[in-house]
Amino acid sequence: MSKDLLDEGVQKILDRLIFIRVAEDREVEPPTLIPLIREWESRKDRNKIPLYKSMVAKFRELNEIYNSNLFSEHPFEEWEDHSDATKRVVDILYGKKGYYEYDFKVIPADVLGSVYENYLGYRLSKSRKGMTLDIDARKRKEQGIYYTPDFIVDYIVKNSLKPVLDKCKNINDLKKIKVLDPACGSGSFLIKALEVIYDKYREFGNPGGVYTKLTILLDNIFGVDLDSQAVEIARLNLLINTLDNRMRLPPLDKNIKNGNSLISGSDEESKKYFGKNYRDKKPFNWQEEFPDVFKQGGFGAIVGNPPYIQLSMDAKQDNDLKKYLLDKYQSSMGRLNTFGFFIRLGIDLLKENGILGFIIPNTLLTQDYYRQLRETILNYCIISNIVTFQDLPFKDAVVENIIIIVQKTKSERERNNNKVIISYVNEKYEILSRKKINQRIFYESKQKTFNIRAGQKNMILKQKIEEAAEPLGNFLTINQAIALKHDRSKYLFDKKLNANYKPVLDGRDITRYFLCWSGKYLNYDIDAIHSCKRQDIFLSREKLFFRRVGDRLIATYDGKQFYALNTLVVMNLKEGIEYNLKYCLALFNSSLLNYYFLNFLKSTKKVFSEIQARQVAQLPIKIINFSKPADKAIHDRIVDLAQSMLNLNKQLANLSVNSNEWLEIQTEIGRIDKRLNAEIYKLYSLTSEEIAIVEGERKSKAFLQVSKL
C-alpha cells in the first residue's frame, strides 16, 4: 500500500467518524457508533463479523442518505480488520476511558482547524509494531501549515467581504458574489465567509436554514489547496457547518478543489517547464476549473493565509518551479517567497473593485526584494488597511506578520487620493492605535516602501535626508563577523597560548564610541568557523564595529586589529574612498540616521531585534565635495568631534563612577554629542522644525525656538 493511499484512507475514516458524531449530537442521526460497538461486543464470535466491517456497512447506508463523496466507496474499506483499534478511536470520540468528553452539537465553526495544523504536521509510517505516527516538522514548514487564529480570520473576512456585500441590493446580487481562498487549508476563512454571507441573506428577509447555507456553499464559496488531505478537511468542515437535518448533501468537488494555485496554463506550457511528469505539480487552470466565475470577471473577494515558502535564487532545488514563477509573474525579485506570488495571483483573479485580504510576512512593507510587488499593488489597487502586530500571531512561526486589505481599481485618481488605515494590535488582539497615511506617499518613495510609521511630514523629511546622499554601502564593505559551527566556549580562552589565538570582541564589548575588550581570545580554527573565514577584514588598519542586536544603531572604531564574533558586524572603508572612517562613524551613531533607520529601514517595532547588514547599507551618507572648502571643513569638524567622543569615552572608563571627574567628563560627552548632532543636522540642511521631528519633541533642546508641528 502506498503512503499516499494510507494517509488518504486514515483521513477519510476520521472525517466520517467526526461527521457521524456531529450528526448524533445534533440529533440529525440516532445513536450510531455506540450501538455498533455494543452489538460487536455481544457476539460470541467477534471475528465472524468484525467491528470494522460493521462500520463500513454503516458507511454504505449513510452514503444512500447523504449522497456525498464523504461516504462514497474507498479502498480503505477493504483493509484488514483492526477491531480493537477501531473501538479505541470510538471511545476517544465519546470521552470514554479517561478521554475528554466533547459536545459535538456546539462544535466551533472550525473544529478541524487545529486538527489540520497538527495532523497534517505528522506522517504515518510502518514499523515492526504496526503503524506509527511521527512528527513531520519538515512538511509543516515546507507547506506553510499553520492554523490561523480566529480573530485574524474574522478581521480579514469582514473587512474584505462585507464592503462587497454592502453593494448588493437583493439576494440575486448576493448569489453573484464569489469568494475564494487560494490556499484554503482546513477552510476556516471559507467558513467565516459562509457565516457573513448567511447573515446578509437574513438581512434581506431570507428565513435562513440549511437550504440557504447549502445555496451559499454552491453559489459563493470557492477554495483550492495543494494538499489533498486539506481539501478533504475543508469540504467536511463546510458540510458540518451546514448540517441541520437528514438530507442529501452536495459533494463540493466543484467548489473546493485540489491543485497548485500558482501553476496554470496549457499542457504544452506545463511540459515546457516541468517535463513529462508535469501533472505531479498539480497545475490548476483557473479559467477551466471555475468558468462561471470568470464569465463575471473574476472573484469579488479573495481571503486567506497563503503559505510563506522561501525559494532561494542561488539554491539548485526546484529550478523548474522558480523559472516558471519568474516567467509567469514577471518577477525580478532577488528572493522568492510564495506569499508574494499569491498576492500577484490574487490581484489577477479579482474582478474590478474586488477586495483581497491576506495575512502575510511584514517583509513586504520595506524589503528591497519586494519592491516590484509593492509597485504592482500600488499600480492596481487601493490599500484599505494594514494591521501590524506586537507579537507573532502564530506559535512556532519565525516571521512577523501583517494583515493587508487591498481593492482592485483602474482609477489612478482613486489610488492617489486613497488614505491607508494603519492599525497597531497588541498580544490581546486589542487595537492600540490607528492612523491614516496617504497612499501616494508610498508610491513617491524610491523603493515604493509601505512605510506605516511615517506621516507626510516624515516622508518629506526622508526625501530631504536622501538628497545629495549615497547609501552607506557605497562607502563601506559590510560583513558579518565570525560564526562558529559549535559551542563557542570551546574556542574562547582567557590566555593567548600561540599565534593562532586572536583577541576577540563580542556585542557586549562595545557601546557608542567605546570598545572595552573583555580579555577573551579566539582559537582561530578555520574548520570550526561557519561564516566569515576572511581574516583581512579584521587585520585592516582601521575598521568599525556595530552591534547586530539592539533598539538603535551603536558603533565604535577599532584601530587594533581585533577579531569579532557574529554578535557584531564589521565595516571597512572601500578602496579609493576619500572620506575619513570616523566621519562615517559619527553619522552612523547620530540621532539623524538613527531616526532614519528606525522609521524607514527597520522592519519590526520590537526592541532588541536584529539590525541587518542590508538595512545598514541603505543609510544615506551625505556626499562631501572635497574641492569645496566649506564641505571639507564640515567633514573635518565632524571627524574631530567623533575623535573627541572616542577619547572622552576612553577616559571615562578609567574613572570611578559618579566621581567628580567622571561627572565632568560625562557632561562633556553630552555636550560634544549635541555639537556633533548639530553639525550633522547642518550637514543635511535640516530646519528647526525638521530637527524637532527627529528629536521627537515639540522643541529642540540643541537649538533655539522651534515652531510647533
TrEMBL record:
SUPFAM superfamilies: S-adenosyl-L-methionine-dependent methyltransferases (SSF53335). Residues 502-621 form the TaqI-like C-terminal specificity domain. GO terms for biological process: DNA restriction-modification system; methylation. GO terms for molecular function: DNA binding; site-specific DNA-methyltransferase (adenine-specific) activity. Pfam families: Eco57I, TaqI_C. Keywords: DNA-binding, Methyltransferase, Restriction system, S-adenosyl-L-methionine, Transferase. InterPro entries: DNA_methylase_N6_adenine_CS, MethylTrfase_TaqI-like_dom, N4_N6_ade-DNA_methylase, N6_DNA_MeTrfase_TaqI_C, SAM-dependent_MTases_sf, TaqI_C. Residues 220-391 form the Type II methyltransferase M.TaqI-like domain. It comes from the Bacteria. It catalyses: a 2'-deoxyadenosine in DNA + S-adenosyl-L-methionine = an N(6)-methyl-2'-deoxyadenosine in DNA + S-adenosyl-L-homocysteine + H(+). Its EC number is 2.1.1.72. This is site-specific DNA-methyltransferase (adenine-specific). It comes from Candidatus Gottesmanbacteria bacterium CG1_02_37_22.
